[in-house]
Specification:
By secondary structure, the chain is an alpha+beta fold. The protein folds into two domains: 11-187, Serine Threonine Protein Phosphatase 5, Tetratricopeptide repeat, CATH 1.25.40; 196-265, Sporulation related repeat (Alpha-Beta Plaits, 2-Layer Sandwich), CATH 3.30.70. The chain contains twelve helices and four strands; from the N terminus they run H-H-H-H-H-H-H-H-H-H-E-H-E-E-H-E. The protein has helices at residues 11-24, 35-48, 52-64, 71-84, 88-100, 107-120, 124-137, 143-157, 161-170, 179-187, 206-218, 244-256, and strands at 196-203, 224-225, 234-241, 262-265. The protein has a four-stranded antiparallel beta sheet. A hairpin with an 8-residue loop joins strand 2 and strand 3 (234-241). The protein is elongated and about 70 Å long.
Length: 273
């Protein structure tokens, strides 16, 4: 009789598994290194190295070649699927699933990424709710420190610069190495920093400017009419932003509602324009 040895995961795969588990969701290192989990670790390593199409294909094969995952394995798989998805709607569904599981080691990461996704999609209110839930449910998780960075961005999009700067002052680099972003956000709150706004139109007659302002507010946004400048024009503007990217996102939201919106320099702290 010939005795055969069952194949065992290689040391390299086991190392990758441990690292992947730690970075993706903080699972304990003693989690069982089953072949299915080893493959998930390999897929995550592909994603981490930027090989997204290859990782996406491998994850599809993983789902098709085995039983429906359960427990932490299901959370890990859906977390990866959301991360690799090219469809924001599908990604949001998976992140929500992981986030509401409660007790899943992947929940903090899912809530942070869900907040980022919602902020990028123009939903800062829901992003703030996810970030607050992350801090409340996982006060000791490293991602809570990074969450303040994204809280500041969401507050900025909502036009509350004072609160945004307070949030950025509480931020710290997270697992994604966001130290540069944190320093940049804090520096933008220094006195004399340039601000941006979104301009919706300029009119010779104040009545035209007031009509546009009313339309903008009916659509659910805030706006104001700038006093007539030296060129005789009344400008309709909304928002004050310390980051041009935040202003650009806000302008895109307005364009999607049918307004002509462009990013402009706002009045500086001394009051000039």
């Amino acid at each position: 009789m010939i005795l055969t040895r069952r194949p065992r995961p290689t040391r390299l795969c086991l190392v990758a598994l441990t690292a992947a588990i730690a970075s993706a969701g903080g699972l304990r290192a003693q989690a069982a290194a089953t072949p299915r989990r080893v493959e998930l670790a390999r897929i995550q390593a592909l994603a981490d190295s930027g090989r997204v199409p290859e990782a996406r294909e491998a994850l599809g094969v993983w789902y098709a070649s085995g039983p429906a995952p359960e427990g932490e394995e299901a959370a890990w798989a859906r977390f990866l699927r959301a991360r690799l998805s090219a469809d924001p709607d599908s990604a949001e569904v998976d992140y929500v699933w992981v986030a509401i599981e409660g007790g899943s080691a992947f929940e903090p990461g899912a809530r942070l990424r869900l907040a980022q996704l919602r902020l990028l999609r123009g939903d800062p209110e829901r992003a703030l709710a996810d970030l607050e839930r992350l801090r409340t449910s996982y006060p000791g998780d490293p991602r809570t420190a990074e969450s303040w960075l994204w809280t500041g961005h969401a507050l900025e999009v909502l036009g509350d610069l004072e609160a945004a700067c307070e949030a950025w002052s509480r931020a710290a680099p997270g697992e994604a190495g966001s130290g540069g972003a944190v320093r940049e956000a804090r520096a933008s709150c220094d006195p004399g920093s340039q601000l941006f706004a979104v301009q919706l139109g300029a009119f010779g007659a104040q009545s035209g400017a007031e009509t546009l302002r009313a339309r903008v507010e009916e659509a659910g946004f805030t706006a104001h009419v700038m006093p007539r400048a030296g060129d005789g024009l009344h400008r309709v503007r909304t928002g004050r932003f310390v980051h041009m990217t935040s202003a650009a996102r806000y302008a895109e939201r307005l364009r999607q509602r049918g307004f002509e919106a462009v990013v402009v320099l706002a009045a500086n702290p001394a009051g000039s324009s």
